[in-house]
Design goal:
Radius of gyration: 14 Å
Structural class: alpha/beta
Number of strands: 4
Strand content: 15-25%
Number of helices: 4
Order of helices and strands: EHEHEHEH
Distance between the termini: 18 Å
Strand order of the largest sheet: 3-2-1-4
Helix content: 40-55%
Shape: globular
């Protein structure tokens, strides 16, 4: 049985980048994963609403203030239910499947 990966990303005033990252995952990744986006106190509250409304299958968490990159990731961990954690910058574009390769490497080492 496949193990699930919890992908955690932090958004701060970067909804366009975050949407592009989500779309690239949806297009290229087929290994079981959940995606957790922590909106880390973006100045425009519409970023949180946009992400939550556009991607109902994504866990979108809102921090009222920016608690830094590590703090945002730590918030995301609290919502993770996967067997593995994968911290991914929100401006990353996935161009081919990667999760199965990473999980197999971890399991075999």
């Amino acid at each position: 049985m496949d193990k699930k990966v919890s992908i955690i990303t932090v958004n701060y005033n970067g909804a366009t980048d975050t949407c592009e990252m989500i779309e690239s995952l949806k297009q290229h990744e087929n290994y079981p994963y959940e995606l957790i986006v922590v909106d880390n106190g973006s100045a425009n509250l519409n970023e949180y609403s946009l992400l939550k409304d556009k991607y109902p299958d994504v866990k979108v968490i809102r921090n009222d203030k920016n608690i830094g990159f590590a703090g945002g990731n730590n918030i995301g961990i609290q919502y993770a239910t996967g067997d593995y954690l994968f911290f991914l910058n929100n401006d990353t574009i996935i161009t081919s499947p990667i999760l199965e390769i990473l999980v197999k490497r971890l399991d075999n080492d």
